[in-house]
Amino acid sequence: MIGLTIAVSCAPIKSTTLEAIKIAVIADIHLSNVYGQLKDNDYMGLKNVENGKYAHIRTMESQLHSTRIFNENYFAFLSAMDNVVDRNIKYVILPGDFSDDGQPIHIRALKEILDHYTTTYGIKFFLITGNHDVVQPFNRRDGKTDFLGADGKAQPIMSQPGMYTSKQNKEHPVVISSDLQNLGYEEITRFLGDYGFFPKKEYLYWGTPFSEYNYENYSFHKAEQTADLTKRSHSIPPYGLPIPDISYLVEPVEGLWLLALDANTYTQKEKQGGDPSRQEYPNTGLGLNNLLKDKKYLLDWVCKVADNAKKMGKTLIAFSHYPMVEFNDGASPEMEELLVGSKMQLKRVPDKRVAQLFAQAGLKLHLGGHMHLNDTGVAVSDEGNTLFNIQTPSLAAYKPAFKILTLKEGGFAEVETIVMDSVPKYKEFFGLYHQEYTFLEHMKEGRIWNKEVLSSQNYGEFMEWHLKELVRLRFLPDEWPADFKDFLVGLSGKELLLLSMDNTSLPLHMVLKNLRDNPDKIKELSNSVKEKTRKIQAVTTHFEEWSGYDLLLDLYRLRSADRLALKDIGAQRTKQYRLIIDSILNNPSFQGKDDPIKRKMYLLASIFNKFLNGAPSDHFQLNLNSGTIISLKQPIYENE
After folding, report:
1. What per-residue confidence (pLDDT) applies to 267?
2. Which of 15, 199, 474, 587 is most buried by its number of CB atoms within 10 A?
3. What's the CA gap between 87 and 553, in Å, rounded?
């Protein structure tokens, strides 16, 4: 445990100068330059006959196996920014993964977009990098094998020759362009330095963990002298290689402090053969967990910043790419026991010490991304300090949305989630995907993506299809015990309800067999259910309309979107789920460990229950002085 000596009290935040300031938070854009051009190769991309433009897009096959899309999110970002303009918001935070792997072709597009909205509408952007922006701290060769080429075939593009050999029957010959390399810190900040990474004369204050000046003797000249990346670095053991740290504190308007934390951490890895020129420094992707070990100075700096903010009456808002608080509504232990493989990215859950230490340091509000999900985390330190962690959804995943933070007098902050259901031009490449699908059919590929994806009527529905296919093609095969998954997906909703009420000591698969072999038993249990649920009898009349597969899909909906998913799940089905969950959790026959299937059902019910009962995450108000949170959202249905 890192020792801290600063005592933090909950003194009222003086925010009268910040009344009604609005800040948009847009996380995990993963911007790809779909209409960009390679700077050093004549290959123009794939021609879209519908508009005559040449596009560099990835295949639908790759999109539907990834936790993010690569193409349509370009239009979603532009639409989100137009939404920001319409709301007259002048401050925008991008907490990492603003690009897809920090490649020059994509970074150029991001800069053009940010420059446009800055120049045209006076918007001030503040960025911090994520694991897909600075993949490694220094330039690194890279490429993608899954761009979409002519006739529906894949088109590999690599930054250097010799990196990949095309499969002749499935792919076009490799295109070489340095525009597909990963950029390191120096190049990323050179492109995007105007957006928080370096001081500006217009800022009232700008500093870093390495600044030797303070607020009282600050000057732009002093900040400029210490802003060079060579003066902002830490070392990676065992060789002590200096790695830039681009964390910064900025006061863009009187009274508001924005604290950007570079929580990327890297490990040093020597390539096979011991060639020192081929050192690799992979991003751990674990963010704040490793920060406590490798970048402890950041925690010490946060402690000083929070203490100064309290003394000077500044409203302090921190943001980084990674979450500070557990984001599974307390269900992580059950998920760890139930799931296998990638386990819903449980390795990315921050250690409890992270939230404790940052709350102890005096941090009250942190904005994060990385997880592509909507969530509000609340952590309280042993001293009673409350830290709110706001997880912002991604525009490139279900449910596509961004957050608006409104600062109010008296230390209050209102948070609203803006869902991007409507996005112009999101169907721009659907004709090209049809060509891809036809090619895959011709190749007689095994399990290919569902063509119904292309029937989506709006962007929200398209992103819902993305989640459905991701669950079908990747999550269910990779994350669930095969025996339990096969048992569950074959159940009807009615069978799930009846099984939840079984109070025998028989293994659950035998109970199911008895039910299916004995219609009279089903009728008897059904009558029992109706008697026990007579007050909500209407709920029990449509259980045959869904299956165990639908339940698992809705579990992923809830995990990704939290309460934003309830509209997609529907009021009736949500009530049915609650009935089954309550029945299992209160049934003694499910609370033992003798029957593995019953144990897994109990864990699943517990996870689902916690997902349904997390802290408000769509529209709510925070009291940063008292550490309390209240929902401002009207219930979707009675007794929600």
Report:
1. 83
2. 199
3. 34
pLDDT recorded at residue 3: 29
Gap between the Cα atoms of 352 and 330, Å rounded: 11
- Give, as one character, the DSSP assignment of residue 5: -
**244 and 229 in contact (C-beta within 8 Å)?**
yes
Instruction: Tell me whether the omega of the peptide bond preceding residue 399 falls within 30 degrees of 0, making it cis.
Output: yes
Segments of the chain assigned to CATH 3.60.21.10: 16-34+71-140+182-419
> Do 621 and 414 meet the contact criterion of CB atoms below 8 Å apart?
yes
What tens digit of pLDDT does each residue of 546-566 get?
Answer: 999 999 999 999 999 999 999
The structure tokens listed for 634 are: 């009207």
The residues, ordered by sequence, that sit 6+ positions from 276 with a Cβ below 8 Å of its Cβ are 270
pLDDT 10s digits, 320-340:
999 999 999 999 999 999 999
Rounded distance between C-alpha atoms, residue 52 and residue 74, angstroms: 18
pLDDT at 343 over 50: yes
Two structure tokens written together for 504 = 């025998």
Are 35 and 78 within 8 A, CB to CB? Answer: no
| pLDDT at residue 535, rounded to an integer | 44
Which tokens belong to 168?
């002749």
Distance between CA atoms of residues 297 and 581, nearest Å: 45
What count of other Cβ atoms lies within 10 Å of the Cβ of residue 371? Answer: 26
Question: In terms of Cα–Cα distance, which of 613, 462, 494, 486 is closest to 552?
Answer: 486
User: 134-178 pLDDT, tens per residue?
Assistant: 999 999 999 999 999 999 999 999 999 999 999 988 999 999 999
Query: Would the pLDDT of 277 be above 70?
Result: no
**What gap in Å lies between CA 385 and CA 365, rounded to an integer?**
11
Q: What is the pLDDT of residue 6?
A: 28
pLDDT at 338: 97
The architecture of the domain spanning 16-34+71-140+182-419 is 4-Layer Sandwich (3.60)
Q: For the chain, how many helices (H) and strands (E)? A: 20, 23
Cα separation, 299 vs 202, in Å, equals 28
pTM strictly above 0.70? yes
